Amino acid sequence: MTLYLIRHADAGTRDPYSPSDHLRGLSEDGMRQTARIADRLGDAGVTRVLSSPYPRCVQTVEPLARRLGVEVEPQPALAEGADGRRTFALMTALAGTDAVLCSHGDVIPEVIRLLRITGTVINGQRGNAKGSIWTVTSDGESLLTAEYAKTPRKPDAVLR
Q1: Which pTM was predicted?
Q2: What confidence tens digit (pLDDT) does each residue in 66-95 have?
Q3: Burial of 147 (0-12, 13-18, 19+ CB in 10 A)
Q4: Above 80 in pLDDT, residue 134?
Q5: How far is CA 87 from CA 6, 17, 50, 52, 104, in A?
């Protein structure tokens, strides 16, 4: 089984003084990333798509969910500011599922730290770029490995 932990795609610049910053949607570059994410994961056997309720996260995984014929499931444990331990617990509960989880830049590093200290093997480079995907494999019970990959934003970028 495989979990794909995605940081939301590019949403432009944060406005720390705006009371509605949590409603910020994706930029043009971010929309390109969503198409690339859907292309990358469209045939991966994903059966569930969970997301932070924030629009930028939901918009990141909507094209994939449409392609798969499933609904995006809002999940507070993936929201900005969520306790990474809750997110980690959610991932552990989903270890027997092929699923996508979309979250934020403040949550994902804590989840990766928890994966590492609980014995998950972190392969290759580490990162937290917008639109990036952590592929986390499991044996149905335990989270075994995690591997990081970026998703390019620019139109002429090559997908690896």
Answers
A1: 0.90
A2: 999 999 999 999 999 999 999 999 999 999
A3: middle
A4: yes
A5: 12, 27, 11, 10, 11
